[in-house]
Amino acid sequence: xxxxxxxxxxxxxxxxxxxxxxxxxxxxxxxxxxxxxxxxxxxxxxxxxxxxxxxxxxxxxxxxxxxxxxxxxxxxxxxxxxxxxxxxxxxxxxxxxxxxxxxxxxxxxxxxxxxxxxxxxxxxxxxxxxxxxxxxxxxxxxxxxxxxxxxxxxxxxxxxxxxxxxxxxxxxxxxxxxxxxxxxxxxxxxxxxxxxxxxxxxxxxxxxxxxxxxxxxxxxxxxxxxxxxxxxxxxxxxxxxxxxxxxxxxxxxxxxxxxxxxxxxxxxxxxxxxxxxxxxxxxxxxxxx
Amino acid sequence: xxxxxxxxxxxxxxxxxxxxxxxxxxxxxxxxxxxxxxxxxxxxxxxxxxxxxxxxxxxxxxxxxxxxxxxxxxxxxxxxxxxxxxxxxxxxxxxxxxxxxxxxxxxxxxxxxxxxxxxxxxxxxxxxxxxxxxxxxxxxxxxxxxxxxxxxxxxxxxxxxxxxxxxxxxxxxxxxxxxxxxxxxxxxxxxxxxxxxxxxxxxxxxxxxxxxxxxxxxxxxxxxxxxxxxxxxxxxxxxxxxxxxxxxxxxxxxxxxxxxxxxxxxxxxxxxxxxxxxxxxx
Lengths: 289, 282
Known about the structure:
Chain A is α/β, with parallel strands linked by helices. Helix content of chain A is 33%, strand content 19%. Chain A has a six-stranded mixed β-sheet, sandwiched between helices. A four-stranded antiparallel β-sheet of chain A has the order 2-1-4-5, with helices on one face. Chain A starts with 30 loop residues before the first strand and ends in a 9-residue tail after the last helix. By secondary structure, chain B is mainly alpha-helical. Chain B has a single domain (3-278), classed as ABC transporter involved in vitamin B12 uptake, BtuC, CATH 1.10.3470.10. Chain B is 81% helix and 0% strand. Chain B has 13 helices and no strands. Chain B has helices at 3-8, 14-39, 43-62, 67-85, 93-115, 118-126, 134-153, 155-163, 165-170, 175-214, 220-245, 249-267, 273-278. The termini of chain B are far apart. The chains are: A alpha/beta, B mainly alpha. Chains A and B meet through strand 6 and helix 2 of A and helix 8 and helix 9 of B.
């Protein structure tokens, strides 16, 4: 079966990607990765090795693992921020470049300059750029989509504020609102919970759960293993390759964590004795920061 | 002498009219781009661009070609060169800029030292706004119109790649492409502004207007507009100072801009030092 031929592909000169508004292939997974390997230029060790996984629409997936396990790299590869060197990535049955509008990416907090002179509304409108392309101004439908996204994230009263005036949790909601305005189906969030207090984390989770119920697919990288059982339907423990993939409880089993961190501790030589215990205590704490 | 005469006398001369028009137009182009220079952290690249055009200007001068064309070719080579050296991330971008910048400038000085007196060098280094020809003026006007048109037409792309390049990539928009476009606009603008303030001080026009405006406004279009107002004020004040006090016009323009920045830094509502001190925040 040739999946590319199954439906016509619209092309536009004015869109950013070469292909645009490519319909999803019915029945295909939200994300299908096959044999993906990746090494950063100049790095001696690969960041990801022969990774294969399938994520279905509506799943809420947590990517967990130690620092340098390749969680962010995987997100960046799917979002197109890094180019795959080996293996394939398909989104809703299409090769990734056909799906620019369908993938919503929320970068790590540190990747964005929050002092930038831009309003909340302008940031959310950036989600519409995926559909607008070159030389097109937002029309009424775009403004309406932005208003709906602002409303859904409870940001309407903050719409005309400069983004830096908002709290960390509000800023995170703006970024999620942007993926809503984009009408993205696959949401990739890179460490969205870092530096947020527990109450704000809970609020972000409720938002994500509601989106998953609408059929959106959510992939989140996180250090915070304590939140897994409550908020995710599936967890993938990554350490350059997939160590464990299953329900959060399975992935949280001491054996899995000890195995992954045990290997790592030998190489790090920092003399820690109880990696699993250490992790279980790290609720609400991000080792990265 | 009454105020009106005092104001009108300088602009009764054609060279003063051209100088004023050149200063105002170049100032507007610089101010519009300075919003991006400031918020994308491109001050170093802007300064480098100003210096790397020197060999282009000298070679064009030697061959009797249009100086503007020579400068532009050098500036575009710089933009491409910076991208090429740092493409594999083996060399950091600011390192690549530093190397290109000093190398090109040295080449320019070397060429100049062989053939011409230092009088020519002074004009390039410090500007010669009263020596603007009508051809120069047309070129500067063209550059200003082009810069404004490009920023209006590609505002979305400039905004998203400045604020969140990751999102731009994710929706299929190449920040590299936008960056090269911006570097070329920057090159054109630098070349236009060098007539007014010279190689050494052009960076002031590319940084200070938006730096000042950013203390007073929180939206990019307002920062551009306000920055343009400051640039125009500085061009006018600088030229009058130059006429009446017989001081270097480029330096007078830059100093006026700097004074405006200091005033904003001290007295800007909410963010000024004095304001914060009064409220006990500083």
